Amino acid sequence: MALRALAENSVRTDNPGHYTVVSGDTLWDISERFLSRPWLWPEIWHINPQIDNPHLIFPGDEISLTYVDGRPRLQLVRASSKGNAGNAEMATTDLIRTAASTQSNGATSATRTATNVPISNFPIDSIRQFLVEPQVVSKSELKSAPYVVGTEDDRLIASAGNHVYVRGQTDNSRYSVYRAGEPLVDPDTREVLGHEAIHVSKVSLIKSGDPSKMVITSNNRETLVGDRLMSISQSLPLSFQPRMANPGVKGKIINLVNAVSRSGQNQVVVLNLGSSDGVQAGDVMSIISDDRRIKDTVSGKKNDYVTVKGDESGAVMVFRTFDRVSYALIMKSNRAIRLYDRVAVTDL
């Protein structure tokens, strides 16, 4: 009931009343037109039992805000061209497969704009490269993984088509090759929460042995001696919906992916919260700037400081969890998001 009341109080006074979905929309985009807290969409979403697959929204469908007994309700009016949307499950599978595909095959979500494909819940393009390849692993996992011991003709670097020699247990025929990235460190405890493994290439087994002989089938960067092999990851499910994280969850942004000092909307960050903290894919939290201490130079008192509390400056949604850290997407921001900004569940 508390979430329902919060959702009802989140209805924007400038909402459009009705909105016709277009290709490229996301559920989050549409929710923001009606709610100041878009992640509370499910709380006032009305499921029409007369519509097939009422949770799927297609270009051409209409979303309308109505009031029943004084309470707001969002409902779907299916575009007549959709009929019974009998291909919805196939279309959803197609969308997920497309979103999880790697850059190497040239597939992008832009190629899936037909009206028989449902819209996604969030900007898939922003997280596409993080769905399969990046891994966060422990130091012991990296150390125990098979490794490249040499290359053909003693090359310093190897790329697609080149042969490499691998030591360690190799039970599979195909592997992804990774390189240890910077350690992910908790800013408060200074504890190493994991290491980001940078995806380097993919290899296939030619001949088992010590060392095993493999060929590089594709690469994102050159393969080097010392790079580690791991089993090829499966694509992650994208069926989760944004929702408020559990109350009491608090953490910090500990890494700005593809950024140096600040980030913004639709950029990926790493949180010092993981599955061991009860965080799940779909969890939404507010971003709160750090408290600041300002010296009062007017009072005349020595060492007189005042603390300015941090402001809510955006929201993140977790989309991939590991044991002690998680990847999250900045869904909205009203200022630059900085390293070590806090994340928490708030009522703001």
Q: How would you briefly describe this protein structure?
A:
The chain is 12% helix and 35% strand.
How is the secondary structure organized here?
Layout: H1 2-8, E1 18-20, H2 27-34, H3 41-44, E2 62-68, E3 71-77, H4 88-100, H5 124-127, E4 135-137, H6 139-144, E5 147-151, E6 163-167, E7 174-185, E8 192-207, E9 212-219, E10 228-231, E11 243-244, E12 250-256, E13 262-263, E14 268-271, E15 283-288, E16 292-295, E17 305-308, E18 312-321, E19 326-333, E20 337-338, E21 342-344
How many domains? The number is 3
In angstroms, what is the radius of gyration?
A: 24 Å
Structural class: mainly beta
Shape, principal axes of CA atoms: flat
Strand content: 35-45%
Overall residue-averaged pLDDT value? 85
The helix-strand sequence is: HEHHEEHHEHEEEEEEEEEEEEEEEEE
Uncertain runs are: 83-113
Termini, distance in Å? 17 Å
Jot down its keywords.
single chain; seven-stranded antiparallel beta sheet; 348 residues; Thrombin, subunit H; flat; mainly beta; 3 domains; six-stranded antiparallel β-barrel
Could you explain how this protein is built, in words?
The chain is mainly beta. It folds into three domains: 1-126, no CATH class; 135-231, Thrombin, subunit H, CATH 2.40.10; 245-344, Thrombin, subunit H (Beta Barrel). Helices cover 12% and strands 35% of the residues. The strands form five sheets. Strands 4, 5, 6, 7, 8, 9 and 10 form a seven-stranded antiparallel beta sheet that branches. Mean pLDDT is 85; it is low at 83-113.
